[in-house]
């Protein structure tokens, strides 16, 4: 056939047939044209031998012929790790009168063949047979390259990823902080309880990232907590050697596939922006669910081999004790949080999750706060998690404190209030602006109209008008409930006398 080279076997077969048949008949029986047969008789070399002779551009001289054995091979022997481009640049430096850079592909091919014959032994990957229910793997991967935004703001996050090696069932969830024990414990337990069972072995990487930047004693404590967590679920904790990712390959390869599925699903969605973090978490869960639906049959085989779940979940949070100061807040891991002012002076137990902090007073849950993150590297302004409702009562008594408040910018619940403050500050004295802004925040809190008031402020500012406190109060003031008249029928006193007489007769 045109464009295809004949094989050595065809050539030999043709030459055997040629002893008996004509050139045309022998060529037809061998599977090529008579002209190819004519060339085969003219040059009796096998096709593979002719191909090797044409390897350097149809008879062009080999530019490395006099350098390979004399200079290149000794160089590779002394330094086997050299790259082809490095060797080629060295040869060009030694022989500047020659143009050797065009021979890069030739050198790459020769070095590859030389290393296959004379190079050092390479590491071998041993494929494993996986038994149902034996092993589950988990790891974190950076999802920054997905380009996800929440309400237009970039989301810097990780994704915790768990998979059963046999069936391919997966679980994934968004992690806002770094790799930590709390994130690992929460993600792993969520995967087990959603799966309804536990694999006999749980494999991770070296967990160095989860225990980084803490004291050695704390590292040992966290490793002991991880071992206890696995013991509670009856699974055997194992890990791969540090820096050898392929030992955890069943989850490493799935990272790429899962990231690609997320990216493809976002392209079908038409946007990488989500209104809220909850919407993005739901999107990730739906993407994982569609993948698991394709592995339903394999999971049915593996499910009977899984270990049963324990009666209850294990601890999946860190704990700390915090003291509420006179600022109606506390500092925890370089982040300042506000709490209701009635808690000033109390010591609270803080349960630290990846996305929230739960506060307990005397063993009773009293408040849940969103988790804050300190600036990376410990530089920049201190992080604050502020809820204006916690301090608005006191701030209303001292409105002048707003102007120079350390966490003033974090106090405003919405960007519309921040814009209103900037406008007021530019249009009137600082004391008047502070007093009006505090009253607007109090109105939002007292009348539970934060979103509606924000929309009203935007309309006023867009029209170039200043907020009128009296008008806004009249607009958002909820009508007071009018007590209804309750009719009370008071019986005559003679009725009580009759009851007493009846009781005496009965006695």
> How do the strands line up in the largest sheet?
5-4-1-6-7
How many separate domains make up the residues?
5
- Poorly predicted runs of 5 or more residues: 209-213, 243-247
- Write down the overall geometry: elongated
- From the alpha carbons, calculate the radius of gyration and give it in angstroms: 39 Å
The CATH class of the largest domain turns out to be Alpha Beta
The CATH homologous superfamily name of the largest domain equals Ribonuclease H-like superfamily/Ribonuclease H
Strand elements, count: 15
Model description:
A hairpin with a 3-residue loop joins strand 12 and strand 13. 45% of the residues lie in helices and 14% in strands. Helix 15 packs across helix 17. A five-stranded mixed β-sheet has the order 5-4-1-6-7, with helices on both faces. Strands 9-12-13-14 form a four-stranded antiparallel β-sheet, with no helix packed on it. Strands 3-2-8 form a three-stranded mixed β-sheet. It has five domains: 46 residues; 51 residues, no CATH class; 171 residues, 2-Layer Sandwich (Nucleotidyltransferase, domain 5), CATH 3.30.420; 68 residues, no CATH class; 89 residues, no CATH class. With 507 residues, the protein is α/β, with parallel strands linked by helices.
Pick out its properties:
alpha/beta, 5 domains, 507 residues, 15 strands, four-stranded antiparallel beta sheet
């Amino acid at each position: 056939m045109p464009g295809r080279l004949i094989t050595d076997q065809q050539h030999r077969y043709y030459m055997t047939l040629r002893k008996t048949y004509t050139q045309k008949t022998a060529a037809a029986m061998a599977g090529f044209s008579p002209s190819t047969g004519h060339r085969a008789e003219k040059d009796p070399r096998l096709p593979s031998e002719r191909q090797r002779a044409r390897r350097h551009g149809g008879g062009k001289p080999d530019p490395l012929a006099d350098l390979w054995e004399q200079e290149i091979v000794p160089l590779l022997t002394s330094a086997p790790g050299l790259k082809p481009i490095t060797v080629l640049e060295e040869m060009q430096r030694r022989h500047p009168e020659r143009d050797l850079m065009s021979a890069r592909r030739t050198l790459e091919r020769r070095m590859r063949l030389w290393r296959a014959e004379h190079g050092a032994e390479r590491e071998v990957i041993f494929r494993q047979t996986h038994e149902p229910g034996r092993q589950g793997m988990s790891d974190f991967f950076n999802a920054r390259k997905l380009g996800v935004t929440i309400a237009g703001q970039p989301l810097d996050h990780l994704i915790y990823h768990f998979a059963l090696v046999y069936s391919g069932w997966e679980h994934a969830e968004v992690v806002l902080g770094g790799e930590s024990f709390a994130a690992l414990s929460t993600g792993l337990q969520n995967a087990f309880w959603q799966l309804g069972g536990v694999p006999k072995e749980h494999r991770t990487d070296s967990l160095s990232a989860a225990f980084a930047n803490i004291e050695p004693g704390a590292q040992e404590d966290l490793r002991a907590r991880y071992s206890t967590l696995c013991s509670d679920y009856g699974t055997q904790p194992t890990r791969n050697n540090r820096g050898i990712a392929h030992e955890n390959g069943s989850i490493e390869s799935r990272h790429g596939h899962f990231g690609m599925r997320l990216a493809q699903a976002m392209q079908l969605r038409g946007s990488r922006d989500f209104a809220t973090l909850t919407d993005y978490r739901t999107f990730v869960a739906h993407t994982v669910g569609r993948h698991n639906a394709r592995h339903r049959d394999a999971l049915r085989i593996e499910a009977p081999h899984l270990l049963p779940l324990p009666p209850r979940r294990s601890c999946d949070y860190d704990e700390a004790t915090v003291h509420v100061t006179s600022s109606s807040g506390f500092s925890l891991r370089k982040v300042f949080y506000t709490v209701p002012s009635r808690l000033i002076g109390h010591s609270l137990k803080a349960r630290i999750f990846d996305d929230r902090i739960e506060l307990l007073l005397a063993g009773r849950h009293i408040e849940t706060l969103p988790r804050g993150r300190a600036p990376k590297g410990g530089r920049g302004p201190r992080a604050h998690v502020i809820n204006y409702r916690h301090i608005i009562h006191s701030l209303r008594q001292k409105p002048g404190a707003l102007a120079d408040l350390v966490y003033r910018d974090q106090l405003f619940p919405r960007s519309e209030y921040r814009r209103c403050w900037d406008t007021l500050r530019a249009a009137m004295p600082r004391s008047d602006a502070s007093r009006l802004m505090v009253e607007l925040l109090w109105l939002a809190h007292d009348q539970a109209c934060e979103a509606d008031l924000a929309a009203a402020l935007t309309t006023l500012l867009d029209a170039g008008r200043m907020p009128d406190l009296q008008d806004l109060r009249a607009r958002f003031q909820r009508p007071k409930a009018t007590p209804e008249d309750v009719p009370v029928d008071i019986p005559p006193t003679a009725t009580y006398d009759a009851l007493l007489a009846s009781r005496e007769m009965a006695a």
